[in-house]
């Protein structure tokens, strides 16, 4: 018995040990491992079994509906049921085999069957779990089930399907018969098709805040790989002319900016990273998984693309050998021709999909990070000689980042040229002392300065684009070496050691294109410098385009821009020639390498050159050429991206921050100064303040570059709940004191009792001197995020004097203020800024000279109604002001500062006047001014007669619908041909077509060479002949291509010149009305980005499209010649590909347009935040701007994600069709034709090239359409409103004008053809040398009259200037002989000399005489330093000058022009008493006697001593004559105004010419 037992155990053990080695046990092993891991996973998981709110919400639905919803929807449930049934079928088949099977080795089969049945049973258990459990457990079970079934399926494929592809093997399980294929079908369905096709369940990033899922979040694996989730979008866009952003897929929750911030800021924000590391490594940390996928995809593509040459080699080898001795059947290699490119394109498109997704995310992250960090910086002027003190992040304040606290403070800066208080200037000064000085900056305007704001703007525009272009660095790291290794291996396998000779030669020749590339880099830098110079010139001129038109400078400005353009085009020509040379070297090196390799292979190695060797290796040499070219093009982009990353890193880690964010400053404050005893105190004690923490940088931006320091030597506290004034002369630091309170200046404690305190908890509101408004409605600007209270809001409107202004606008407070408030006057912007502060709930109001931009009447209204009204009562108001006279009645506490930055007195106004005699004398003068100002006709002038009263002044940017029109391309193609288009196109296209033919003949000739080895012995073949003939054909190809390319390049330069010239001429020749309705940013975009697109991308894409079209035609033609039957499938594939392209191009164009439109608001929010940076920080409105930034970035990301993924949608489909064509041709040539191997190889080579180019041709069509969008945008601006063009008959006589006489007959005017008249048939005459004053109420047409005289608006009637009718003159001739000085004169950046004489027509003596005559030198008498000279630098718009200085320079410019007619349009309404006195004296004493002067004013004293006075009302002249004559009419309007005046006697004396001494005194 024991013996029998031992035998049974021995037999069983033997059977078991033998059975376990069978591969069919793999499913059982997998099931055991899966079960262990599954149990371990369940034991470690903490499943939350609590009911979710959604369960309670869905309780009302039936149980079946709730079940379906819990499992992700009907589709998912159906797929799970199908998989469950399939697995049940597998269990049944396995059980059937176990019970009824009759194997030869019964014991072994029984054990295998048991194991297989157990594995299938376990699979069935997992399938049940996926159906019966909640989402988390179901997901884990589903993954385990998929892995188990897939491994089992793979096992059967290897055992039973692969043998069918060979000549020698047979299926191992063929004995199972039909059961085997039933199992294969069930396994394919359950293990392959269901996992590929089942949709995924949406899992929100934040379960507490689920969003509408993006289709990619719920798409199946197959839909993801094929991008099928974009089908609906493509079809929807195909049916519409334009698809809006709302119609594109929603943004996935993991792509929302707030979630990206939470994910990335801990690795990128210097306030959250534990130690400093370069920004690049932070990005790599954030996107490490993505770049691992990218590397894997590139490696996969490199391996997959090797399948085609292997397939070609094996197929041709099959033909050469006749099938003898081969193992694998030829259809497998034909399948390689399909699967290789298809798998390769799947891998590459997933690479592109991933890298573009990274790009969009990185752009959102970097933009928001710079936005957040910019709020921490100290904004100050940095000249070429000053440097910021590096600031390292200190202890992280509570407001560091949103990623830490939902209500964190942060903000955004960028983009607009505005200073810390919103001043429109080229550079940004951090300080009021700088603004108080109102003198010239030492900063060089032309590139020598370090412009902080400009740098921030560049970081989110230029640098972001550069970083984007360097994103493919992993291509050089992974794909290039992988392909070189694989290509070398394959070449060695077919060519032996001759492949290494070829590779060595390639290594020797590679430095040649590298050497050329170094020249290209230098030329590129020079070209960019010339481009920058042109763009700077265009931008500068567009900033003062009104002045250019009013002065008639259009032809000269166009000439200057044309000169810059010629310099740029010259470098573009040189650059393109070098690029052409480098490209051809990259093209020739692989060809030379190939010929040398073949020569060594045949001559030295004495081997036979067969078709299988040539045509398979030729593909590899072409691949190497492509890799070389790509590498040389990518390396400069990678280097530039590295430089941009360095700039971002430097900004984040080395920009000087506010004290609260600076480690050194916060430590110093902690160690010195205990703070005030009362935390509610507002004030300082024993402290100093500077504009930067660095010693050498503590400069105000004044010519003297003196170090400014605000010094509080004792305790200074402002009265709570009272009105506090800060007084002092210019440059004393009044605004600096407010900035010190707000924490904008660097705090230096001077002792243990030092402190600075502003209680933020009660709220702070701030109104800057340079008013800051957003491009929103007036109402939104006032509310500024506060809840709307109608009663309070109406009070604010009334008390801030805005009611009358809003009544003049049809849209009222819903009127958009436009870019930088261009629809508003300076006074209106000041009152809106004030209204914002008054409306806010803040208890503390800091107002920086808000009365400066207002006339006295409005100032008195603000003081009496607002500052003493109920809205300000019990609030603490700190007011900086020059106007002591108006504000003295309300002052409860006065601080007086001296020019040394110290407090001279504090207390009552009387004590301040005692301490400062100059202040007392200034108060006396201001009191006189206030009395005179009561003679204003109707308060501040707001001439709105010509402005269309609509809420939206700025017209919406046109968005073209559908495809780019033929007319746009005709603009480009017509300019290419120039004056001889027929000759150009025939020569260019014919030489290129011949080039393609010879290129095709090259490949055929190699086939001819290999054919010789089939009919001759190797030693009989003249290898030298074939090598030299091949080289000759290549030489002819090079010559033909060079001729074609050079002709094309010369044509593109001509087109760029013509289009740019037409655009500039059109913009300079347009009307003022069009310029008012069109933001400057749009015009600048046309002159910069769109012109750049024509210079580069459009030119390149059009050439590449032509090149690909020619190549495809010749390659398909070659295939058809060899195999005529392939014409139909080849044409069909091309048509199907083109149809796919036609379907998707609408979606692509729409998404591109939406992406472009969504990008501008992102930059706009940046610009608005930077312009009002101090105001935002003062109000604590950082979070509001951050949330707005999130919204705008998310809109851009939504459009960008759709734009990028659309290309993957088309590429997958077209590449698969192209690969199908190549495989079909291969099958036909192998099984259906009698061609010899060389012709088969030639045909396959042509087919591979043709099929590979289909997608590129479609992509180029699309890119051409997108680039053509720039053409379309430019064309829009070539057909805008235009003023009359200059003609030869419009040139006046050389002597004209000899006098300033002016005669107007029945002059009417309107602003638009269908608009109302603003002037009604007025007639008057002015003799040469007369001085005429023009007065009238708001909207009476005063400014319209000046515009009509200059023909800036539509006119009827006649105007004779020195006897010649102005409508017969060219506009530039007319306007160049009239000079107007507007209320806000415009100045150019550059030297004062360039402003007075921009076209270098006068010497310095003339310019200095003009400055002296204008009164500048008399105004500067007594100044020790900081005097303005001809070499002084002027900021853009004169931003570093006071209004008075700008007016003086404008007057000097008028004197230089020596016009006979001078017009002053409210030129002295907003300047101080002293400057006005100087200007009026200059006008009276320095102008020549024959100069006619027209003065528009609302102060009677300004014009009462004129020779004549014109009174306008509603576009009519109601009175005109000498003042004394008009005053005799007791019922006249002028008489009534004088009678109402408090200064009646003085005005009458002026009119009678009897108050000689009073004239200068009353000139204002």
Task: Please give a structural write-up.
The chain is α/β, with parallel strands linked by helices and 1564 residues long. Among the domains are: 18-224, no CATH class; 1298-1521, Rossmann fold (3-Layer(aba) Sandwich), CATH 3.40.50. It is 60% helix and 8% strand. It is built from 56 helices and 22 strands. The strands form five sheets. The chain has a six-stranded mixed sheet, with helices on both faces. A six-stranded mixed sheet has the order 16-19-20-13-21-22, sandwiched between helices. Strand 14 (1354-1361) and strand 15 form a beta hairpin. The longest helix is centred in the middle third of the chain and has 51 residues, at 554-604. The radius of gyration is 41 Å and the shape is globular. It starts with a helix and ends with a helix. 46% of the residues are buried. Mean pLDDT is 77; it is low at 7-18, 47-57, 102-107, 381-450, 665-671, 696-706, 932-951 and 1554-1564.
